[in-house]
Amino acid sequence: MKLNESKVRAIRQQALAGQLHVDIAARVGVCQTMVSRIVRGDAWRSVSGLVKRRLTESDRASICQDVANGMRQVDVAAWWGLAQTTVSAICRGQGKGASAWQDGDTV
Q1: What residue spans define the domains of the chain?
Q2: Which of 51, 60, 72, 73 is packed most tightly, with the most Cβ within 10 A?
Q3: What is the DSSP track for 11-49?
Q4: pTM
């Protein structure tokens, strides 16, 4: 299947909604690797919108600081586009491979 900007945005939105990359790939007619590259912003960079990126050490520190300052983990998770369990793992020092959603124009 040939991709276009509209389909790329739809792929990113489906991933943001929590759908598995392999399921999105099967529906769209591309391989799971391509879906992952689109979601990370490695492919189709020219298409604006949300992409996933790896959290930096500074990002993880900010997340932990927000929780330490009394923000609920669920609220921190919503702000960063993460699952609450990911925030919990980061604050325990176990969330090294976490990714967060951000505007693709700033990548």
Answers
A1: 5-47, 54-106
A2: 51
A3: HHHHHHTT--HHHHHHHHTS-HHHHHHHHHTSS-TTS-S
A4: 0.56
